[in-house]
Amino acid sequence: MDGSSAVVVGGGIGGLAAAIGLHRIGWQVTVVERASTLEDAGAGISLAANGLRALDELGVGEAVRNAARGQYSGGTRTPRGGWLARMDGSALERAVGTPIMGIPRSTLHRLLRDSLPADALLIGTEADSLQQVSPGTVRVGRSGTVLEADLVVAADGIGSAMRGRLFPAHPGPAYSGSTVLRAITEHPVDPGTDFELTWGPGAEFGHIAFPDGRAEWHAVLNLPAGTRFADPLAELRRRFGTWHDPIPALLDATRPTAVLHHDVHELRTPLPSYTAGRTALLGDAAHAMTPNLGQGACQALEDAVTLAAALATAPTVQAALAHYDAERRPRGQAVARAARQAGRMGQQLSHPVAIALRNTAMRLTPSRAATRMILRHHAWVPPRLR
Questions:
Q1: Does the model's pTM come out above 0.85?
Q2: Comparing 81-95, 139-153, 194-208, 240-254, which segment has the lowest mean pLDDT?
Q3: Quick one: 296 exposed, middle or buried, by C-beta within 10 A (0-12, 13-18, 19+)?
Q4: Which of 110, 100, 123 lies closest to 8, judged by CA?
Q5: What CATH architecture is 5-70+98-172+268-345?
Q6: Residues forming beta bridges with residue 179, ordered by sequence position
Q7: What is the pLDDT of residues 292-320, one digit of tens each?
Q8: Residues 6 or more apart from 129 whose CB is under 8 A from it?
C-alpha cells in the first residue's frame, strides 16, 4: 500500500510514533496537533524494554538511549527509608537486553519530531470533524479546511474527541481516585539511586534520575478530583518533608512554577474495538491507564509499530485494521487492568493492616520472582517494519 496517506490526530508520543511508522513504510502522513506551541509539557518518563524495542523498529531507539539514563539502582521504600524491594537493573538487562531507561518527556518528543519530515506536523490545528466519504476515503475537518486520507489514526489522548465521535455510547475516562504532582529539578541533584518509589498511606513519592544530573520527581495522593493547592510545593513539603532522603532535597531543588498537577484518569470501561471504519485508535485514546506500571507510553509505542507493520503487509486497509485490533486490544486492556490493580495494592492502599500485609509480602518476595512479574509486560517483541 505504498503511496497511501494517513492523518494522525494528536502529536503526542503515540501520534508521533505512529506517524514515523507510517512514514517508514512509504505512507504520506500528516499529524494534526491542536496545541499552538509545542512546549513539551510533562516531566520525565521511564521506558521499559518493550517501548525501547518499538523505538528501535521506528529507527529512533539509539538516539533515545543516548539521551536517557539506565535504571540500575533503586527500588521501593517506606517513608522512613526501609526497603520493601530493591531494583536489580542488571538482572533485568540480562533478561531482556536493556535496563529501564529514564528520559525527560521533552527530549523524547523532540527526538520523535526530528524523525519526521518538517512539513508533516500541523500545529495549532484542531480536527473538528470525521467523516467516511467513500469506502476508501476518510475526511478530517480541521479549522475550516479538509484533509482526505486512506486512514485516520486517533491519537488525541485520554479525552479523545475522535473516540467520542466513533463510540458515542462509551462513558469515556473515569477518575482513578489519585492526583499527581510532578516536576524536574532546576539543577543537578544526587538522589543516590536511578529510580525509587516510596509508599505511604494513600501516597507515593518517586524519582527518576537523568543523564545531566537533574531528576524528575512525582507525588501521588488519594484526593477528590479537582483538588488544587494555592502553593503546591509548600503543600508537598508539608506532606513529604519528614520522609526519607532525598525527598526533601528534591523538593528544595525545584522551582515552584515548575510543578505540574494533573488528576489521573483511565478508561475503566474497555472499548469494544480499537478500530471503526478506516480509523484506528491508539495510545491513551484507546487504552488510557494509570501510571502504576510505567506502561502507558510503552503501550502506545507498541500500538504504533503494530499498526505500521499490519499496514505494510496486509492486502487492504480493512484487513490491516482487523489485525491491529486483534493484536493490540487484548494486550492493551490486560496491561490497563494490571496497572489498575498495581495502584490498588500500591500507592492507593491506606488502611494500616492492609499496608502491613503488603509490605511483608513484598519483603518476602524473592528478587527473581519480582523480575519474572516485570517480564510479563516488558518481554514483548515487535513486528518488523520493512
A1: yes
A2: 139-153
A3: buried
A4: 123
A5: 3-Layer(bba) Sandwich (3.50)
A6: 221, 263
A7: 999 999 999 999 999 999 999 999 999 99
A8: 139, 140, 141
